[in-house]
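Illustration: Glucosyl-3-phosphoglycerate synthase.
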Amino acid sequence: MNNYTSIIVPAYNEGERIKNTLNGIIGIDEIDEIIVVDDGSSDNTESEAKSVKSEKVKVFRLDRNRGKGYALNFGIKEALKNADIIGFLDADLGSCSSEVIKLIKPVLDDEADVTIAQFPRAKKKGGMGFVKGLAKNSVLEMTGVELNASISGQRIFKREVIERFDEIPYGYGVEVGMSIDILKWGYRIKEVLVQMTHNETGRDLKGFIHRGKQYYHIKKVVKQKKKEWGAK
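Result:
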């Protein structure tokens, strides 16, 4: 297997963090290309990304905010021009983005077809338990496989897995929906413990609204997957 690796970084209003995130991964030899998709940001995300001095970094800007799913699909089209391995990384990781090497290695070594980052426990209470519980139980119910990090957006894929998708689902249920499909197709998913942190959602109104949206989207995508796979 060849090992040209492309990392897709969808970014929306991450001007404060995107540069550190990119600087954390540009020096990783196993990464050949970093595709930043600025999802119509209203801040300086695009210029900050372009200021990173590396030939690996390619920055694209969408005409308006279209959502993470659209940004990922855009990035995948670019990555498939060259890549044998494709990864997703969030733009708000900062320097701990370097931990992505722990996700890349098992795919390179054919220990897994897909790897998912399993984060340490959140430092502040965010009330994420019911969302994570729904995601974990839904994947287990449909596939018989227990995943602890099924909502994690930090993932590495073999090209053949990505090519099975007509397009990446939209909305906050994208990761759960993909996990179900990947396992149903018979591919191997490996969760990898990483020392990553990101901009955590708190227990304020904005945080609860975000988690409510996540819950709704996961329920919706699981219902759709049950219909597609003929599960009750």
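Reading the tokens back as a structure: The radius of gyration is 17 Å.
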